[in-house]
């Protein structure tokens, strides 16, 4: 089964509890919290990024579990996960209720005709509102046109953190036994035909330091034994005969060697050098490839290329176009929802994905590997439908204290958001649901958090394509742009900080065309942050100046990507995130700006 839910509703925590209670660990074993979030970035961000599988035993039954990410940008991982399972465990937070990604994952599960077990999690929360949340879930099933059979799902109430489950909302339960029982009753054992030729679908890839690339497969029909020849049905339609050199199954967190596996097993196979996701392993005498895995189209793109700034090569080790291209190609192999396209520049590529976070995570991983990159502004991907340009529209759900309804409504109205629904939970908090062009969401998060003093919650997920909504307001402020190369000075920054907020501190290297701050006014301004004080006889104390200099605003990668406009980009290195103009030369920028203005005026 796959565990699906909105972000942070407690999927990975529930998997932890299931592992513990099925005896996967020794009682004195030192395992951290949320063991399935095993990559560095996952632990740091506290979210799941990659879908992963584990297995627990209950009674005589082995239950394969796929833990999926809840963040909308990693929806491709959920879709891939659903091709491996016979049922889903839909988790909903007892206080937050269904949110945009709950709708997305449930829609995918219903489309795949998978049986659903509903888990209402976090019933221990003081603000739990179980009855209403249940009504909302039923509403969601109806909204998604679930048939009668699908809507008769069993409900289990859980406190995943304490490892307790119960069939009665009023009772806390003592362990997860009730959940296991419902799962075994509701989710059928793998269905297969006796004597059907082998079919195993490659649904994920991994690598082992000992045996190289591993293909993770779900066996649908037939059996596979170690050393056996199989027909490898490739993406290009060709069929190759290969030998399965190593065969593993998952037990808790370990891969253990297996001699023979059958329908329902999730296996890892070595020996297929450049296998890709979606290919089939079949019977060599009767090869029948399974249908390819289909996932939703990407909705956002940005350019990624070599670092062309004057400071390039200082902080990173991987600088060349060739290295970047081969790294992007590697990423494509394991990530079904990404695409990489050439651009008119030989050293820059267009990377397409599901959202800003997904793209930012890729850049973040690359910079940690030593890459230096130039990253362009994220752009939505439009599509021609019946000869008309259409753009992606997102469904947004926000939770805010009542007091901010006014400012937040205004914020979204400027970006062509349409309010669909507003509910007041009577707790001082309201939930608003809107539809908004994806373009309008780029950069909204920072402003939204400022307007709601950091209290607001915002979630969004792709909903549909709609005809182009016309021009949208972008960043209202201009940039403070360095007009020369050199180190910044106290003296210069002290007077510049009056103009807006600065991104650099004293004694930092800047270059012509680099953005050193946000201008309070609407236009860009070229300034000199390297100016030295004229030497005079009057002494002043430096410590006094230090106090008066406001600490610089350090933009993290995601914030930088949100901040920039069309004619700007981000320079990313292992240690620095710098903002810059695409055209560094002041005169060149002037020419481009007046050209853009002329074409706007003439309506071209
Ligand atoms: N109070 C309470 N907190 C819980 C419960 N289950 C999980 N949490 C907390 O909720 C937070 C999110 O838990 P995760 O297990 O990472 O959620 P997730 O659904 O895996 O999140 P993503 O994979 O990023 O979508 C953590 O801080 C957990 O400790 C619960 O039953 N009660
Ligand atoms: Mg998780």
Structural features, described:
The protein has 604 residues and is of the alpha+beta class. Strand 2 and strand 3 form a beta hairpin. Helix content is 25%, strand content 31%. Guanosine-5'-triphosphate (GTP) binds at residues 5, 7-13, 34, 47-48, 69-71, 121-122, 124-125, 159-161.
Quick recap:
The protein has 604 residues and is α+β, with helices and mostly antiparallel strands. Guanosine-5'-triphosphate (GTP) binds at residues 5, 7-13, 34, 47-48, 69-71, 121-122, 124-125, 159-161.
Which secondary structure elements does this structure contain, and how are they paired or packed?
Layout: E1 2-5, H1 11-21, H2 40-45, E2 52-58, E3 61-67, H3 75-82, E4 88-93, H4 100-111, E5 116-121, H5 130-143, H6 148-151, E6 155-159, E7 164-166, H7 177-186, E8 199-208, E9 212-221, E10 224-225, E11 229-233, E12 239-243, E13 246-251, E14 254-257, E15 260-261, E16 266-270, E17 280-282, E18 300-306, H8 321-334, E19 339-342, E20 348-353, H9 356-368, E21 373-376, E22 379-380, E23 383-385, E24 388-401, H10 405-414, E25 418-424, E26 429-437, H11 438-441, H12 444-451, E27 457-467, E28 478-482, E29 486-487, H13 490-496, E30 500-502, E31 509-510, E32 514-519, E33 525-527, H14 542-548, H15 557-563, E34 568-572, E35 577-581, H16 586-601
Parallel strand pairs: 1-3, 1-4, 4-5, 5-6, 28-33
Antiparallel strand pairs: 2-3, 6-7, 8-9, 8-17, 9-16, 10-15, 11-12, 11-17, 13-14, 13-16, 18-20, 18-21, 18-22, 19-20, 21-34, 23-24, 24-26, 24-27, 25-26, 28-32, 29-31, 30-32, 32-35, 34-35
Helix pairs in contact: 3-4, 9-15
The structure holds guanosine-5'-triphosphate and magnesium ion.
């Amino acid at each position: 089964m796959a565990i699906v839910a909105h972000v942070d509703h407690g999927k990975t925590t529930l998997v932890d509890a299931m592992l513990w209670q099925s005896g996967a660990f020794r009682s004195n074993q030192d395992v951290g919290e949320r063991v399935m979030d095993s990559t560095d970035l996952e632990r740091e961000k506290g979210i799941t990024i990659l879908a992963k599988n584990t297995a627990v035993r209950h009674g005589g039954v082995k239950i394969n579990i796929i833990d999926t990410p809840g963040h909308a940008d990693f929806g491709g991982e959920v879709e891939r996960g659903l091709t491996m399972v016979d049922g889903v465990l839909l988790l909903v937070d007892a206080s937050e209720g269904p949110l945009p990604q709950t709708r997305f994952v449930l829609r995918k599960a219903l489309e795949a005709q998978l049986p659903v077990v509903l888990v209402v999690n976090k019933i221990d929360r003081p603000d739990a509102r179980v009855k209403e949340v249940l009504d909302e879930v039923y509403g969601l099933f109806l909204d998604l046109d679930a048939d009668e059979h699908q809507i008769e799902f069993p409900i289990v109430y859980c406190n995943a953190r304490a490892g307790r489950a119960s069939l009665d909302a009023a009772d806390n339960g003592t362990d997860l036994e009730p959940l296991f029982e419902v799962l075994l009753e509701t989710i059928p054992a793998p269905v297969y035909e006796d004597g059907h030729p082998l079919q195993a679908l490659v649904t994920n890839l991994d690598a082992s330091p000992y045996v190289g690339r591993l293909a993770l497969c779900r066996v649908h029909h037939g059996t596979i034994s170690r050393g056996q020849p199989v027909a490898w049905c490739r993406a290009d339609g060709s069929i190759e005969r290969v030998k399965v050199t190593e065969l593993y199954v998952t037990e808790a967190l370990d891969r253990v060697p297996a001699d023979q596996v059958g329908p329902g097993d999730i296996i890892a196979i070595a020996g297929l050098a450049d296998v890709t996701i979606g290919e089939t392993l079949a019977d060599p005498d009767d090869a029948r490839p399974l249908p390819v895995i289909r996932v939703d189209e990407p909705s956002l793109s940005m350019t990624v290329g070599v670092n062309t700034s004057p400071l390039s090569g200082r902080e990173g080790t991987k600088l060349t176009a060739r290295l970047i291209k081969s790294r992007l190609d590697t990423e494509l192999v394991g990530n079904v929802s990404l695409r990489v396209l050439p651009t008119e520049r030989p050293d820059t590529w267009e990377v397409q994905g599901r959202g800003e976070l997904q793209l930012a995570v890729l850049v973040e991983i690359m910079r940690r590997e030593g890459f230096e990159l130039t990253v362009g502004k994220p752009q939505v991907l439009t599509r021609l439908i019946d000869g008309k340009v259409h753009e992606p529209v997102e469904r947004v759900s926000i939770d805010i204290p009542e007091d901010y309804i006014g400012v937040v409504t205004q914020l979204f109205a400027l970006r062509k958001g349409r309010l669909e629904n507003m509910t007041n939970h009577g707790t001082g908090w309201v939930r608003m649901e809107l539809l908004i062009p994806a373009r309008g969401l780029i950069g909204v998060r920072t402003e939204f958090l400022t307007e709601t003093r950091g209290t607001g919650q915002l979630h969004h997920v792709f909903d549909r394509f709609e005809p182009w909504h016309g021009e949208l307001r972008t960043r209202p402020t201009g940039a403070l742009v360095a007009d020369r190369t050199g180190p910044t000075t106290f003296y210069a920054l002290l007077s510049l900080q009056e103009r807006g907020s600065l991104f650099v501190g004293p004694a930092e290297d800047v270059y012509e065309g680099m953005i050193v701050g946000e201008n309070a006014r609407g236009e860009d301004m070229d300034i000199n942050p390297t100016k030295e004080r004229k030497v005079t006889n009057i002494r002043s104390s430096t410590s006094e100046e230090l106090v008066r200099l406001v600490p610089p605003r350090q933009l993290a990668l995601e914030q930088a990507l949100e901040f920039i406009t069309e004619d700007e980009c981000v320079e990313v290195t292992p240690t620095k995130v710098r903002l810059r103009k695409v055209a560094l030369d002041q005169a060149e920028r002037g020419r481009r700006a007046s050209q853009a203005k002329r074409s706007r005026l003439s309506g071209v």
